[in-house]
Amino acid sequence: MIKQGKMKVSIVITSLVVLIFFLIVLELKTSSSTNPPPATTSVDAATSTAEATTTLAPTSTTTPIVTIAPPKPPLNIGHAVGISSGGGLAKINVADMNQQLDEMVALGATWVRFDIEWGDVQYSSPDHSTWTSYDTLVNAIAAHHLKGLGILLFTPQWARTASCGGGAKCPPANPAQFATFAAEVAARYKGKVQAWEVWNEPNNYDFWATKTDCNAYTTLLKATYPAIKKVDPNAIVVSGGLAPENTDNNNISQMDFLSCIYNDGGKNYFDAMGDHSYTFPVLPSSNSTNMWAQMSETSPSLRSIMVANGDANKKIWITEFGAPTNGPNPHWFVTEAGQAAMVTDAMNLYKTYNWAGPIFWYTLKDGGTSTSTQENFFGLIRADNALKPAYTTLQSVISSGL
User: Fold this and answer.
1) Which one of 31, 231, 283, 392 is at 20 to 30 Å from 247 when CA atoms are compared?
2) What does the alpha-carbon distance between residue 355 and residue 359 come to, in Å, rounded to a whole number?
């Protein structure tokens, strides 16, 4: 009886051991099939799919290793001085072009702002492009180690509505066509031009013929921004520099225009805000309500509107500032000494602004000697190549540090 009992116990124990082992194996198989191990490498959520590259490890495995692209340079460029050259720089002879760029470098400027007119490139159709003059200019800017802010603007006849009588300054009939052109330009000059400004003074009916329309401009911005970023993710896109205007039947003030961009959902379609904060004939510090003060001192201000819309980290780029030294009306120009005082006053204020991007002086050289228009006299250099006091004053300010 004892031997038979021991044999029964032994059989039971053996059976239990086999059963437990079977259950353990079954659990391990189930766990491995329903809970795969987590991936060892992941892409930061802030990094887009296009920015990550996938390569195979140099072993027999086919498991991909994800390499995150190097971080982009910061979009918020800080203090720097540039020259806003307008549309003429690409249209002068190469010797004069290089002389002006030499003078910018001697001044201490590190940026140059210049026009790229759509109609100059694609005058007759989008299928026929002429790049020669802009290729020459962009290559010259790069050769002088200057950074470029290109203004994309104006509309060829084939791309504007027949009802608009404002010529090249009419807005595009189809924003997508303008965006396609902008992408072609940005792709062509990638690595040579660091920033793009979408139109010039769109709140001024002289540049958005024949009546300003902030809703239409925001639509253009929404089309153009992703088109540029697709071909050059590192490019900085600046909203069109706003003119110093009051809201009336034809124009829209800077603050009203910026508020409209935000109300129309334009927040995510520019990296920096462009402004033209002219105050001549008075100094920027002369009062607390002028166009310069409206950047940050008034309530509301451009800055407060940006902060209220969650854009505190974006900079305001002063893409035009300056003063003419002659013209048809003495109430609207300053003396050459007054222009130099304008430089000192503006730069003393500018150096205190942590929200400011580059400031661009309009312009380097006088356009002529005829006093029929003040436009001839915004230069820091006279038409005969003599330096105005403002040139040497700005040179001294730059050399002393921003």
Assistant:
1) 283
2) 12
